[in-house]
């Protein structure tokens, strides 16, 4: 994983609302937008914004089924992210920025 991707994921996870959304999605097989909106403190207007950032960071994947869009976590991204952070913490160089 390159440094730019690490930065993108770190920024996505730094937001409390996005972290809550990712946790909720991860605790379920998948969630649709309506289920995410039903979480306290998340408005419909912000859900799509937060989902877009999580998706661009590779933390979730979204798929349309009829009128619903379902989001599910991508654990491989978290695994690669934590492995890269571990390497960085041990003084090993990460991939260069693109």
Describe this structure in words.
The chain is elongated, with a radius of gyration of 14 Å. The model has no long low-confidence stretch (mean pLDDT 91). 17% of the residues are buried. It has a three-stranded antiparallel β-sheet with strand order 1-3-2. The chain is 58% helix and 14% strand. It starts with a helix and ends in a 9-residue tail after the last helix. A hairpin with a 2-residue loop joins strand 2 and strand 3. The protein has one domain: Arc Repressor Mutant, subunit A (Orthogonal Bundle). Helix 2 packs across helix 4. It is of the alpha+beta class and 98 residues long.
Rg is 14 Å
Uncertain stretches: none
* C-alpha geometry: elongated
Count of the domains? 1
H-E string: HHEHHEEH
| CATH topology value | Arc Repressor Mutant, subunit A
Separation of termini? 11 Å
Q: Would you tell me the overall average pLDDT?
A: 91
Instruction: Name the CATH superfamily assignment.
Output: Winged helix-like DNA-binding domain superfamily/Winged helix DNA-binding domain
Classify the secondary structure makeup into a structural class: alpha+beta
Biggest sheet character: 3 strands, antiparallel
Strand order of the largest sheet: 1-3-2
Strand content: 5-15%
Topology:
Layout lengths: L2 H12 L1 H12 L3 E2 H5 L6 H13 L3 E6 L2 E6 L1 H15 L9
Antiparallel strand pairs: 1-3, 2-3
Helix pairs in contact: 1-4, 2-4
Brief descriptors of the model:
98 residues; alpha+beta; Arc Repressor Mutant, subunit A; three-stranded antiparallel β-sheet; 3 strands; 58% helix; elongated
Summarize the structure.
By secondary structure, this protein is of the alpha+beta class. The protein has helices at 3-14, 16-27, 33-37, 44-56, 75-89, and strands spanning 31-32, 60-65, 68-73.
């Amino acid at each position: 994983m390159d440094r730019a991707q690490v930065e993108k994921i770190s920024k996505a996870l730094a937001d409390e609302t996005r972290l809550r959304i990712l946790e909720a999605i991860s605790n379920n097989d998948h969630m649709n937008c309506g289920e995410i909106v039903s979480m306290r403190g998340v408005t419909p207007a912000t859900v799509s914004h937060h989902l877009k950032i999580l998706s661009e960071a590779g933390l979730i994947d979204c798929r349309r089924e009829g009128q619903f869009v379902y989001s599910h976590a991508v654990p491989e991204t978290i695994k690669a992210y934590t492995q890269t952070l571990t390497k960085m913490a041990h003084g090993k160089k990460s991939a260069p920025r693109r």
